[in-house]
Amino acid sequence: MSDSAASAAAVLLDRIQAPEGSGREIPDAATREIIGRAPVDSVAELDEAIARAKAAQPAWEGSGHEKRIELLLAAADAIDANAEALAYILSREQGKPLNGPNARFELGACSAWLRTSAAIALESQVLVDDENLHAELVYKAAGVVGAIGPWNWPLMITIWQIGPSLRMGNTVVAKPSEYTPLSVLAMLSVMNEVLPPDVLIGISGDREVGARLASHPDVDKIMFTGSTATGRRIIESSAGNLARLTLELGGNDAGIVLPGTDAAAIAQDLFWGAFINTGQTCAAMKRLYVHDSVYDDVVNALGEIAASVPMGNGLDEDNVLGPLQNKAQFDIVSRLVEDAKARGARVVTGGESAPELGELFYRPTIVADISNDADLVQEEQFGPALPVIRYSDVDEAFKWANGVDVGLGASVWSSDPDAAREAATRMQSGTVWINSHGGLHPMVPFGGVKSSGYGLEFGVEGLKSVAVTQVVSGPGRKG
C-alpha cells in the first residue's frame, strides 16, 4: 500500500478519533500497536444523537426517493474515493489483509451494496381494484433506525444496515463494535460529506450505550448482527418500545459433500467457504461432512491448501489470511482445537498458534477423524479451524448437519446437479448454497432460521424490512 494511502488514513483518523488523553485505545490486530483512540460516548450523548436523528427524519423522508437515490450514489462515490485509506484502517484495526477476499474486497462491497440499495424500486401493491373498492399497500419509512454492527465485517455489514434504511427515508444512529469503531466511524465521516446533517450519526460506546440504543423509546427499528446471546438481550431490551427487529445472529454452518464428488474440483471453494476472513464470518462453513468414498481425497486436498496459504500482517500485499481480531476469539479457537486433540482427532495441518507472526495468529487448521459430538463441531469456532467429519449414511449426515439450534447458511457439494438440488431442500438453514458456500448478492435476500435470528436483508425484502406498511383504501371505479 502506498504512503499516500497511509497519510490519507491518518487524516481520516484525526477527524473522528478522541482527543489526546481521552477515549479508548484501539490496537492493530496484527502487531498490537495502538493505532488510534475511539470516542467513548455516554448514554446522554446517545440520547442527544437519537433526538437529532428523530428531528431530521421527516425532512429526509420528505425529500423523496429520487433525491435520496442521488445522495446515496454520491455517498458510494465518496467511499470509492477514500477506499484505499479506509482499507488501510480496516486492515490494521480488524486484522484482515488488504488482498484476497478481505479489506479491499470489503470496501468494494460497501459501494456496490450502497448503489444497489439506491437502485431498488419498492412499488406499492394494489390489493383490490374493482367497482366497489381500490386498496393499495404502501411502504413508508419506519422512523429512526438503530444499527448495531459486528467486528468481523464492520464496514460491509454497517452498509447492509444503513443503505436500505436511508433509501427508505429513515435516519440512522449507527453503533460499531467496541473492537472495530475507527474504521466504521471513518466511513460514516466520509459518507456525511455528502449526506444532510443528522441523517446518519455514528455513536461509539460500551455495552451500556448499546443497550440504551436497543431500548430507546424513539428508536423505531433495530438492526443487529452478532452473537445469539447478545441478540436475545436486544429482544428483551426492545420489548418496552416494541421496536421492529432484524437480527442476524450466530451460525454454525454445515457443508455436506455427497458420494462420488470430485474432490479436486471443489477443494479451493471448500477452503474459502470455511476460511474467508480467517474463518471470522457468520455464514462461513464451520463443519464439513464428507462421504467415505471421497473423505481422504477431500481431507488431503484441504490440508495442502491450508498449509500453503500465506498468513501474516494484513498490510503485506502477499498475505490473504490474518490474525484473530481479539484475544477472546483466539482463546475460543485454541480451546476447541485442544479439546479435539484430547478426544483423539487428527490434526492434518495447523492446530497451533503462530507466535512468530504475532500474538493473535492461529495457523490454518484442518481437523480430521473427529466425532460429531466434539465441541469443535457443536460450537461455533469463528476462526481458522475446520472439522471434517466422515459419514457413510447420507441420512445420518443430514441429521448431524441439522442437529444444532442455529441455521444461518449451509451447503451441499456434488458432481450431480439433480442430487445437489434435492439435498439442498433437506438442509435447515436460511440459505443453502450448491458447490459453494457463503456467497452473497445484494439482490438475493439473506437471513437465518432457528437461533440464527429473523428478518431478511438485501433486495426488495431488505427494503421492506426497514419500512412500515400502510393500507390506503377508497372507492372503486364505480365511485
List descriptors.
single chain, 479 residues, alpha/beta, Aldehyde Dehydrogenase, Chain A, domain 1, Aldehyde Dehydrogenase, Chain A, domain 2, seven-stranded mixed sheet, Ald_DH_CS_CYS, oxidoreductase activity, acting on the aldehyde or oxo group of donors, NAD or NADP as acceptor
Notes on the protein architecture:
By secondary structure, this protein is α/β, with parallel strands linked by helices. The chain folds into two domains: about 5-250 and about 450-470, Aldehyde Dehydrogenase, Chain A, domain 1; about 255-435, Aldehyde Dehydrogenase, Chain A, domain 2, CATH 3.40.309.10. The chain is about 40% helix and about 20% strand. It has 16 helices and 20 strands. A seven-stranded mixed sheet has the order 12-13-14-11-10-16-17, with helices on both faces. Strands 7-6-5-8-9-19 form a six-stranded mixed sheet, with helices on both faces. It has a three-stranded antiparallel sheet with strand order 3-4-20. Helix 9 links the parallel strand 8 and strand 9. Helix 8 (about 205-215) crosses helix 9. The protein is globular, with a radius of gyration of 23 Å. The model has no long low-confidence stretch (mean pLDDT about 95).
